[in-house]
Write a structure and sequence with these properties.
This protein is an all-alpha fold. The chain has a single domain, classed as Four Helix Bundle (Hemerythrin (Met), subunit A), CATH 1.20.120. The chain has five helices and no strands. The longest helix is centred in the middle third of the chain and has 32 residues.
């Protein structure tokens, strides 16, 4: 089961990254009148859904694999860069991306003008996308993983 969840988590990151980049660009360029659903809204919804699924899959792995293995050994984990990345850095940055995406959509919905809405979406989606890029264990990094996990 862990292997299946890890594979889904690995592959779904591409949906989240594409949605994050597309939502950020759409928020920057969108000029749809307020009553209509804009491209930024649609891409933002895809981003939010993919990040929520990623968070659920990631939490399952964190609570069943990572947390039991680090309990009582946090001092050693913090000294090991690879272990620290997954025990602290990855989960913190990804949770930040999820929270910022949700906050951005709520702030945009409450905006008085279309320009204010676009700017709030652009800033929040941009920060969330940057956090995702920083938190992914890219190949070649200290805690790097393959780009595509296969079963």
């Amino acid at each position: 089961m862990h292997t299946t969840i890890l594979m889904l988590h690995s592959w779904l990151r591409w949906v989240a990254l594409v949605a994050g980049v597309a939502a950020t660009i759409a928020a920057l360029r969108d000029n749809t009148p307020p009553p209509a659903a804009s491209r930024a809204d649609r891409w933002g919804l895809i981003l939010m859904i993919s990040l929520d699924i990623q968070m659920l899959l990631g939490l399952v792995m964190y609570l069943t694999v990572t947390l039991p293995s680090i309990q009582g050994h946090m001092a050693e984990v913090m000294k090991n860069a690879d272990a620290r990345f997954f025990a602290v850095e990855h989960i913190t940055m990804m949770m930040g991306a999820v929270i910022i995406t949700h906050v951005g959509r709520v702030l945009a919905r409450k905006s008085a003008s279309a320009d204010a809405k676009r700017m709030k979406l652009f800033v929040c989606f941009g920060i969330a996308t940057a956090l995702m890029f920083l938190a992914i264990p890219w190949p070649g990094m200290r805690a790097g993983r393959p780009l595509f996990r296969l079963p």
